[in-house]
User: What shape does this take?
Amino acid sequence: MSSAAPAKTGFESFVGLEIHVQLSTRSKIFCGCRNRYGDEPNTNVCPVCMGLPGSLPSLNEEAMRKAHIVARALNCELAGTSMFERKNYFYPDLPKNYQISQFAKPLGTNGYVDISVGGQVKRVRIHECHLEEDAGKMIHAGDMSLVDYNRTGTPLLEIVTEPDMAVGEEAEALMHELRRIVRYLGVSDGNMDEGSMRCDANVSVNFEGKGLGRKVEIKNLNSSRFVRLGLNYEIQRQIEIIAGGGTVAQETRLWNENRDQTVVMRSKENANDYRYFPEPDLPPFRPDEAFLKSVEAGQVELPLARLQRFVSSFGINGELAAVLTEERSTADYFEEVVRSGADPGTAAAWLSGDVQKKLNKTGIKLEESPLTAARLASLLSMLASGRIHGKLAKKLLDLVFEKNEDPEKLLEAEGLEQITDDAALETLVKEIFAENAVAVEQLLGGDPKPMGFLIGQAMKKSAGRADPQALTARIRAELEARKG
Ligand code: ZN
Ligand code: MN
Assistant: This one.
């Protein structure tokens, strides 16, 4: 299965990921507190998410729906009955001393997701998807530790893959794909910087053909770069141990981003250590027909499929298609421009080129910019029909951003329309000839050099509006007429 082999031959490496995705619901999973990142610490809390005695959880169905939407998109079998359990452990960020999670009956199992690594598509199996609550956030400041319980009870979807990846690059690609998927589905912002998506990994190495080795868990892989670096470091570390005749210890390690290495955190606990037992305060969840319908309604064409379709039906290259499908809103926008009659190749080039530059410069998002899909389509149609040329199109693009008006209106108001009209060009050329008698004499005498100069003068006089091709033809015709 490995697409890139570990650095030493004779070995095989296996990587599985556990990805936690915070679901973007209005309220928390088991109480009515606001689910929002960045608020004043400990302002979105109540007896339920603080785990006070006597308080009772009740399930937020929207969290369940969003979790199901992802599980379904990842081709999982959806459970007819899923159950919540208590996962017991003691830590200051967990005021109840247990986390409500799913163990025996997760909501989705046996799925898969396709990822693209170096242009190759690879399938990674999904072991399961389950729903749980997030813990609070510890903040370590000097010799003090603080805890913010706003995050406690944030709905968390855990996606567990099979160990189908071999190297850090594949794991990084999977994280990237899942991020795009949850954003396409509109269930999470997938922001790793803010902790909306977090990743732990299982890594093992063995002699080639011997199957899985002794598993090491790595925590704290909280950027896609760390996923790649941490895993590749760990694979190499294990290869060296085994190659040296040693045995890899089953343990949990942390990625230390300052030292670029993994370090021991603790020896690994087993599922038994968590003393899972059914959550007595929550009934099993049985999705009914209406619920399943809403899960189906939440499905969209996934980013990789959309990318492949852009390549095959619009004839644009994979790289460009990847740019266009990175965000669903951009892909939607592109398709709208094409539907309005624009040539897909031209629309793609403009979107990833001049339009993107303009967005970067102004700091505006495409979907919020004055350049609606209809406006870009109109601009590109003027370009295609020869009413404006490339330079004018760029100027018009600037004006749309500046004035928030339709290109058609701007063209008229600013007098930008290209001069293709024969009579107008003839007048222009006659004026230019009169003003540049020496250059005209040279041309008539057989010296071709001043041609460029005359074209330049005419373009200048027309404020860039003369159609360069028609203008050149007109100048040649005028010269012929004078020769004769
Ligand atoms: Zn609460
Ligand atoms: Mn978990």
About this structure: The CA atoms of residues 438 and 472 lie 18 Å apart.
